[in-house]
Design a protein that fits this description.
- With about 400 residues, the chain is α/β, with parallel strands linked by helices.
- The protein has two domains: about 160 residues, Immunoglobulin-like (Sandwich), CATH 2.60.40.3500; about 230 residues, Zn-dependent exopeptidases (Aminopeptidase).
- It is about 30% helix and about 30% strand.
- The protein has ten helices and 17 strands.
- A six-stranded antiparallel β-sheet has the order 6-7-8-4-3-11. The protein has a six-stranded mixed β-sheet with strand order 13-12-14-17-15-16, sandwiched between helices.
- The longest helix is centred in the last third of the chain and has 27 residues.
Length: about 400
């Protein structure tokens, strides 16, 4: 990697800070105002495809490749961006997306047309009105063998050493139930960060809509003074599927609700639906949806080679069966509430499939598909503040009814 004198000085300074400063001071250094990416572009050249990331200042970076599907992952300091959220590619690049992967770390995921390697990478300093640029030259790997190598700029390890290690905000498990115990509901806005979820024809990403409605449900529940509500994420950040339900388990939650808005190839299909866990899908559509949602970690650029297969694990002990029964009760009640409030429902609205995010054996869990972003009417409603409030009210009402009944049964 060829570096300018200024670049060498910058990187040496970062490394010295990592060694000399106390951890707290280094964290402040690493968390200074977000960088800004001003453009991401690709270009096809003879024998390679070039990816150029333009920014307002030099950024340390890490690059690695993953297979199944083939993709290149670029980690950078947390950034804002003026580039489109999802882009089409060219050459060896099939497309790319980006977002906040964890505190302090932004991620760009480049989907490739096949196995590739980053044959060359370098930084061009900004001068003469030009932005700083990270340049990656991608080459196809002969024979189809995918190279999972890692490239790091000199300042990356020092930068990462100053970051917080965990984004999750988990309250301490509650004490034994008393008369003033407040049940806890964990709300999970689907997708986030470099995984936008479905994107509507007008460019509305699922991850933003699910977060907006999750906040509305939380506010309604907390306003009663009778319930606690926790979001798995309260900003546009990526949370692995396994961590989402584990947050509910570790917090001692009474209920887990994952919120989504799907997109399919048939634009005439519309309506909300509620899913509960099963090792056998209720229908072909449910199986396809579960398979798509379970790919979230892959989409966000996770290496799942040592990641437990939460979908393949079928827990049949007493606790799991009881939890699934309670999930079923809540799902049926939510379908009834949607219908009473005039929310359009999908045919056979309570469905079953092997969703990884519903795997908890201890916390009753449902996944709510609030509508289809591929349908014009559903998309318009899901982007409407009044309809978002309508969905939030229906979910909050069902939560209150369900938890009140559970408390009554415990006391009887």
């Amino acid at each position: 990697m060829r570096l300018s004198v200024g670049s060498v000085i910058y990187r040496l300074a970062v490394l010295l800070l990592a060694v000399l400063l106390p951890a707290g001071q280094m964290q402040l250094h690493a968390a200074e105002g977000p960088h800004r990416i001003t453009g991401i572009r690709t270009g096809q050249h003879e024998g390679f495809t070039r990816v150029v990331i333009e920014s307002d200042r030099e950024m340390p970076y890490s690059v690695f490749s993953l297979a199944g599907p083939d993709r290149l992952v670029i980690d950078l300091p947390e950034f804002d961006s003026a580039a489109p959220q999802a882009q089409q590619g060219g050459g060896l690049v099939a497309g790319l997306r980006y977002g906040l992967f964890r505190t302090g770390v932004g991620r760009i995921v480049i989907d490739t047309t096949g196995p590739v390697k980053a044959a060359r990478d370098f930084h061009l300093p900004g001068n003469g009105g030009k932005p700083h640029r990270i340049v990656l030259d991608l080459q196809a790997v002969p024979g189809g063998g995918f190279q999972s190598g890692k490239i790091q700029s000199d300042g990356w390890a020092a930068y990462v050493s100053g970051l917080r290690s965990d984004d999750r905000t988990i309250p301490a498990p509650p004490p034994p139930r008393t008369a003033d115990y407040k049940p806890l509901v964990v709300l999970d806005p689907g997708h986030g960060g470099p995984d936008p979820g479905a994107i509507s024809r007008t460019g509305a990403p699922e991850k933003i809509l699910t977060l907006a409605i999750a906040r509305l449900v939380r506010d309604r529940l907390q306003a009663t003074g009778r319930y606690r509500a926790l979001l798995t994420r309260d900003r546009d950040i990526y949370i692995p599927l396994r961590d989402r339900y584990r947050m509910a388990e570790e917090a001692g939650a009474d209920l887990f609700i994952s919120l989504h808005a799907d997109k399919i190839g048939r634009s005439n299909v519309r309506g909300a639906s509620v899913y509960t866990l099963s090792d056998k899908a209720s229908d072909k559509e449910a199986a396809m949806l579960a398979a798509k949602e379970n790919r979230s970690d892959l989409i966000a650029g996770m290496d799942l080679t040592t990641y437990e297969d939460v979908v393949a694990i079928v827990l049949l002990d007493f606790e799991q069966r009881a939890t699934m029964e309670q999930s079923h009760v809540f799902a049926e009640s939510l379908v009834d509430t949607f219908e009473k409030r005039g929310i359009t429902l999908l045919r056979n609205p309570h469905r079953f499939a092997g969703f990884a995010v519903l795997k908890s054996p201890a916390v009753p869990s449902v996944l709510v598909e609030m509508g289809y972003l591929s349908n014009r009417a559903d998309e318009r409603l899901l982007r409407s503040k009044s309809h978002q409030q309508k969905i939030a009210a229906a979910i909050a009402e069902t939560v209150k009814t369900y938890l009140s009944e559970q408390e009554r049964l415990r006391r009887s």
